[in-house]
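anyone else get weird line breaks when pasting these?? whatever heres mine. first is seq + tokens for prot A
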Amino acid sequence: MNGQAMRVKGRKALVTGSSRGLGRAIALALADEGADVAINYLANRAQAEEVAEAIRVKGRQTVVCQADVSDYGQVTAMKKTVEQSLGTIDILVNNAGVISDKTFVKMDHVQWQRVLSVNLDGTFNCSKLFVEGMLAMGWGRIVNMSAFTGQAGNFGQANYAAAAAGIMAFTKSLAKELASKGITVNAVAPGFVETDMVRTIPERVLKRLIDEIPMKRLGRPEEVARAVIFLVSSDGDYITGQEISINGGLLV
């Protein structure tokens, strides 16, 4: 940290979907700022262990947990494992998400349901279970990852956009309920960021998207992570129920 004070020193964090992409960047940023960080993954344990090892090198504690956040039972089991290793979680970043793009006419119910289950139900499941400890402590920070498409919509992403918009409405509602309890709830809405998810976009489509971004480039995971750190540190103590857009100037 180049001699600067660590902004979340001593805190215990969980970042869902943190084996790669935005989640990985957020987990490492939290560790840099002094937090112990639990890593959650769905399928690739090797990637999750790599992130965990990077956290240990920074001198922080960590634990790796496999769980599908759309499954309430699996999240319950993850909570037990995390608390046994790190103690009560006071920072929760609901980052896990999936895409399954198709035009609405071609989209089937399975594609619709899977995206809503992971992205929206997963945010509910983790918030529901981990807020208990925050309420007991009288302090907590929840950051939900939304998306630009939830603000503007996007061709072929009716499911993803609906989930993102739902996450924002959930964030605002939960923030109102928990504000008097010492718990803030905010959202971060990235635009198009350099992640594996974005790299699946065909090159010609991606070029068109970048042309529409006023800054003429994709975002970087570290830029999104810095916003999360701001919200969970003392810098964000009087901020709740808000959505920070990180999209290079894209307008709804």
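and prot B, same format (seq, then tokens)
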Amino acid sequence: MKILDTKYMGLRLKNPIIAGSCGLTSTVEGIKKLAESGVAAVVLKSVFEEEVIKEHEETLKNNLGAFENNMEFLDYFDYQIKDDVLKNMASLIEEAKKEVDIPIIGSLNCATSGEWISYAKQLEKAGVDALELNVFKLPFDVEMEADAQEKLYLSIIEKIKEQVKIPVAIKIAPYSSNLAALVKKLESAGADAITMFNRFYNVDFDIMTDEVKAGNPYSSEQDYYNTLRWVSIMSGKVSCDLSASTGIHSAETAIKMLMAGTTTVQVVSKLYKDGIGSVAGILKNIELWMDKRGYVSVDEFRGSVHHEPTENSERFERVQFMKYFSGHNPQQIL
């Protein structure tokens, strides 16, 4: 009998596999199926600030009529829409908690630190076991200083940690002027876990119509390398938990992340591509590998190959293809 259970943000999980935030975690039925498939926790589909604002604007535009200049009513209307969003989320959480016995992690896609504090408090009140804050803002402003982006992250985690008692993770992007220092600062600001990394909406072009369209929304099996590098680098430098995300499609990749030092791995694209039932296969193959290597528990090999300041450190730190291409003859390729 292999011991797959792990502790993440103080929560006891039966294994390291978490269903990441997505449409599959937006309904009670979806959450129930995920729990039955073997996932140890689910991150609910994010509450997006932009969606709340858009709903507010559309409703104002189409339904106000005689109230369009009534500021008192507008304030109430603004409150009512946000209250409805929270009530729907609270209902989902309450029903899901009755149906499954795995932790439910709420997710907020933050852009500002203001009223999202109240959202965090409401999700805590609704019964989530933890929160994951999705706080990336694309740094496209050429006038913005690099530290302004960091201050946004730190402000949100600090303010929310002051207001809630449940554990809080923050999901970050791999883009920073000094990613290692940022992760360390987030831990110091109170983050109980860091999720590496966000997967973003991708932009693509249609070369025949000049149309801007969405790129492939799913990760591939080759997308895990950057996450693996950074989990390896940071796992020995922070004491908070790390959760690996992006490109985890197999037991082999999940094992690599655990060897690098992650506490949990989050799967999403795998669930869409191969079905929710594919989780069972990942867990079975992890157990088979552990049996071949003689491991009884996940804790025995977690962090076994993470970055250390030794002669092996250059394998994590070197980013150029110094070794692999320098000796190749161009004529052989042609």
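btw re prot B: Residues 53-57, 64-80 have pLDDT under 50 and may be disordered. The chain has twelve helices and 13 strands.
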